[in-house]
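Below is a filled-in request sheet from our internal design queue. Each sheet records the structural input a requester submitted and the sequence that came back. We keep these sheets so that new team members can see what a complete request looks like end to end.

REQUESTER: design group, bay 2
PRIORITY: normal
MODE: inverse folding
CHAIN LENGTH: 115
BACKBONE (tokenized):
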């Protein structure tokens, strides 16, 4: 196996992993029962899937312009997706979207009551 073949196999493997996680996230979005579960399905697997595809682009293009853009994409993805998911959950909780049975939101602290 040559180095070029190994390079191509790694890129294809990363793209396949990325597509798998994106598909799992999409199925979770369609199948889960409420906003909280759907938010979980769209944030975690799709973040991993998108990061894998970005990393495949980094492997293909190297540390130059397009590769650096891919690394920045991974950085901002891991920076913004958890924050966005938390904000969606917080907004849904404040709007009164009910939780599933047996699930509770943490009691507000003294700092939250000042808002």
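RETURNED SEQUENCE:
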């Amino acid at each position: 196996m040559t180095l070029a073949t190994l390079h191509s196999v790694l890129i294809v493997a990363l793209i396949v992993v990325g597509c798998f996680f994106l598909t799992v996230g999409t199925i979770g979005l369609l199948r889960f029962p409420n906003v909280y579960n759907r938010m979980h399905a769209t944030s975690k697997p799709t973040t991993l899937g998108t990061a894998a595809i970005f990393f495949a682009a980094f492997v293909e293009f190297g540390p130059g312009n397009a590769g650096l853009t891919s690394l920045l994409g991974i950085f901002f993805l891991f920076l913004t997706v958890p924050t966005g998911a938390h904000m969606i959950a917080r907004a849904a909780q404040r709007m009164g979207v009910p939780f599933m049975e047996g699930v509770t939101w943490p009691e507000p602290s003294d700092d939250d009551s000042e808002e």
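SHEET NOTES:
- The chain has a mean pLDDT of 88.
- Residues 65-94 form the longest helix (30 residues).
FILED BY: M.R.
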